[in-house]
Amino acid sequence: MFPDPVETDDDIVAVGADLEPGTILNAYRAGIFPMPLEGIAEMAWWSPVERGVLPLDGFRVSRSMRRSAKRFAVTVDEAFDDVIAGCADPARPGAWIDEQIETAYRTLHELGWVHSVEVWRGERLMGGLYGVAVGGLFAGESMFHRERDASKVALMALVELLDDGEPHRLLDVQWLTDHLRSLGAIEIPRVDYVDRLRRALAVPLPKPLTTGQN
Fold first, then answer.
1. Does some domain include residue 214?
2. Domain containing 132: what range?
3. CA distance 77 to 65
4. How far is residue 182's CA from residue 59's CA, in Å, rounded to a whole number?
5. Band of the pLDDT at 193, cuts 50, 70, 90?
6. Over the stretch 87-116, which tens digit does the pLDDT of each residue have?
7. Residues 73 and 58 in one domain
8. Is pLDDT above 70 for 214?
9. DSSP calls for the chain
10. What's the rounded Cα separation, in Å, for the pair 33 and 7?
């Protein structure tokens, strides 16, 4: 269904297909993910030529971030609907999550393949992130914040969750941004990403994410 991503020089490797759970999961296993492209009615499927990843042992935690973390409480999979709604807020700069993406990833969450990390101040959700977990791969999809550092705290909690001593876990951030670079993310060529992905897929899920996959 999808072309081998190492054989094309374009970030977009396919257009079309459905967003059924099996389609999306097979794409992630091939190093591909769906994202709408403005001006194209059909879904675009991406495999960046230069892939952003965050090495778990390279995550940079500043003193100020650790201080910020003390202001918040963190949970996992307690408020997925609220997290994806926050990420999909059309008022956010660069908002890209449309209704079909939101619906598809809600279904994957219900099936146990997509997870959220929530950051709270009291009973108020201040930030969070969500992504796809397949074996040792966690593919981060989006994050948001309503208070400074809340999304960084969510990412810090995710790294701590994934950093369980298994050497082949892979935290995919899709594209490298200045913000992610400041936190320790790097770029690797697509062929290297696919090689790391194959090793990651052979690794079991981290224990906190093992419930619910059907």
1. no
2. 51-209
3. 22
4. 9
5. very high
6. 999 887 777 899 999 999 999 999 999 999
7. yes
8. no
9. ----GGG-SSSEEEE-----HHHHHHHHHTT-EEE--TT-SSPEEE--SEEEE--GGG----HHHHHHHTT-EEEESSSHHHHHHHHH-TTSTT----HHHHHHHHHHHHTTSEEEEEEEETTEEEEEEEEEEETTEEEEEEEEESSTTHHHHHHHHHHHHH-SS-TT-EEEEES--HHHHHTT-EEEEHHHHHHHHHHHHTSPPPGGG-S---
10. 16
Query: Are residues 22 and 70 both part of a single domain?
Result: no
Structure tokens given for 167: 């050497």
Which residues on neighbouring strands pair with residue 73, listed in sequence order?
Answer: 120
Place of tokens 């001006």: 39
Determine the residue type at 28.
Y
Tokens representing 137 are 């791969």
Number of other residues whose CB lies within 10 A of the CB of residue 3: 13
Q: Answer yes or no: are the C-beta atoms of 157 and 112 closer than 8 Å.
A: no
Q: What is the pLDDT of residues 118-175, one digit of tens each?
A: 999 999 999 999 999 999 999 999 999 999 999 999 999 999 999 999 999 999 999 9
Residue 120 shares a structural domain with residue 22:
no
Question: In angstroms, what is the C-alpha Rg of the chain?
Answer: 16
CA separation for the pair 55, 117 (Å, rounded): 18
Q: CATH number of the domain that 79 lies in? A: 3.40.630.70
